């Protein structure tokens, strides 16, 4: 999607037959997600929802990463209300992906961390290059994943492994992510987008009503259903993130990240 001055915007949109390809396009920032990225993805999804000729979506990132998470520079300058509003918007974006009219295939190269991983967790199918890495490192900022990550990661890997990954901030390599059910298909780096397109083409060729019904019933099976981010687990996640953002540790973690130093957490 071009910006008003005609240059490439934060999300590129391309059609490949019945498949729409959405590419996060802030490679110098490892595709860190900011307000402009959320705006552009929301508009792109609106257009996809309105176009009956689109039968599947591929979501990927430009450059060396899928997305390294939220743009922490915004966090550093945001007050509590601004942070809460951004969190709510990002929750809604992940919900839009999870409940899109058509299946969404994530094509992951490099890092998918924080909010980037939360976008991946909202997708139906995940194709990853073998060098990709996934993680929710918010604990290192004194925060927690707040775009649905505490809920969706738990549904994917179970509470014990989810707690470890979020409390430690550890990363999962692509092979390990496939072993625990996050990654659907592994490939070599130069095969990533062609493979994702092949998967999306296959899904686009299936009966659309049946595909939609399968997606809805699977969501219901993992207690997401039509509640989405209005469910109690999601609400508590957002509340906890807001509390952590307002805490001394939360401010210290964000400031330390921006200043490129080790945070000094005090439990306050």
UniProtKB/TrEMBL annotation:
<dbReference type="InterPro" id="IPR014748">
    <property type="entry name" value="Enoyl-CoA_hydra_C"/>
</dbReference>
<dbReference type="GO" id="GO:0004300">
    <property type="term" value="F:enoyl-CoA hydratase activity"/>
</dbReference>
<dbReference type="GO" id="GO:0006635">
    <property type="term" value="P:fatty acid beta-oxidation"/>
</dbReference>
<keyword id="KW-0456">Lyase</keyword>
<dbReference type="InterPro" id="IPR029045">
    <property type="entry name" value="ClpP/crotonase-like_dom_sf"/>
</dbReference>
<comment type="similarity">
    <text>Belongs to the enoyl-CoA hydratase/isomerase family.</text>
</comment>
<dbReference type="InterPro" id="IPR018376">
    <property type="entry name" value="Enoyl-CoA_hyd/isom_CS"/>
</dbReference>
<dbReference type="InterPro" id="IPR001753">
    <property type="entry name" value="Enoyl-CoA_hydra/iso"/>
</dbReference>
<dbReference type="GO" id="GO:0016853">
    <property type="term" value="F:isomerase activity"/>
</dbReference>
<dbReference type="Pfam" id="PF00378">
    <property type="entry name" value="ECH_1"/>
</dbReference>
<keyword id="KW-0413">Isomerase</keyword>
<protein>
    <recommendedName>
        <fullName>enoyl-CoA hydratase</fullName>
        <ecNumber>4.2.1.17</ecNumber>
    </recommendedName>
</protein>
């Amino acid at each position: 999607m071009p910006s008003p001055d005609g240059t490439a915007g934060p999300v590129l949109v391309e059609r490949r037959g019945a498949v729409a390809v959405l590419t996060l396009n802030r490679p110098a920032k490892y595709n860190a997600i900011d307000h402009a990225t959320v705006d552009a993805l929301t508009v792109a999804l609106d257009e996809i929802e309105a176009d009956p000729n689109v039968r599947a979506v591929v979501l990927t990132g430009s450059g060396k990463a899928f997305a390294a998470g939220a743009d922490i520079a915004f966090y550093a300058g945001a007050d509590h209300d601004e942070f809460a509003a951004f969190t709510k918007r990002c929750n809604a974006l992940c919900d839009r992906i999870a409940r899109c009219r058509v299946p969404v295939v994530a094509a992951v190269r490099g890092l998918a961390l924080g909010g980037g991983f939360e976008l991946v967790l909202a997708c139906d199918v995940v194709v990853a290059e073998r060098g990709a890495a996934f993680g929710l490192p918010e604990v290192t900022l004194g925060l927690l994943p707040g775009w649905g990550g505490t809920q969706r990661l738990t549904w994917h890997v179970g509470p014990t492994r989810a707690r470890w990954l979020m409390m430690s901030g550890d990363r999962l390599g692509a092979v390990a992510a496939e072993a625990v059910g996050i990654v659907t298909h592994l490939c070599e780096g130069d095969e990533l987008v062609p493979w994702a397109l092949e998967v999306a083409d296959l899904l686009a060729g299936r009966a659309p009503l049946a595909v939609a019904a399968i997606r809805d019933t699977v969501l219901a099976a993992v207690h997401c259903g039509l509640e989405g981010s209005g469910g109690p687990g999601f609400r508590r996640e957002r509340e906890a993130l807001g509390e952590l953002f307002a805490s001394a540790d939360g401010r210290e973690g964000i400031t330390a990240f921006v200043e490129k130093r080790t945070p000094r957490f005090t439990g306050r």
